[in-house]
Design a protein that fits this description.
The protein is 83% helix and 0% strand. It is mainly alpha-helical. It folds into two domains: 56 residues; 41 residues, no CATH class. The chain is rod-shaped and about 80 Å long. The termini are far apart.
Length: 99
Amino acid sequence: MKDEEVSNDGTAETYTCRKKHSERYTSRKINYEHQLLDILKEKSEHIAEDKTFLLSLAPGFKKLDDDQKYWAKMEMLGIMRRAKKIRCFSHSMHNCNEE
């Protein structure tokens, strides 16, 4: 049955309407999926860069004794806390408080 044909009971018209709705839904779904994949790709690239940097510290960290490792961990946590505060001051406090 062609899209232009309409039977007495309206089945062709219903079919055409459903087909168009399905095509619009599929098109929106594909667009949404592509946008989602782009976002995930960007995030994974950023995470990979951070992970690579942190893993580059591991060989030097392994050479430390237990006391040095404890001290290094505490310093790293302090650096992270200070870095977050610096970022908060460079952005509006509203954005910082939401995290």
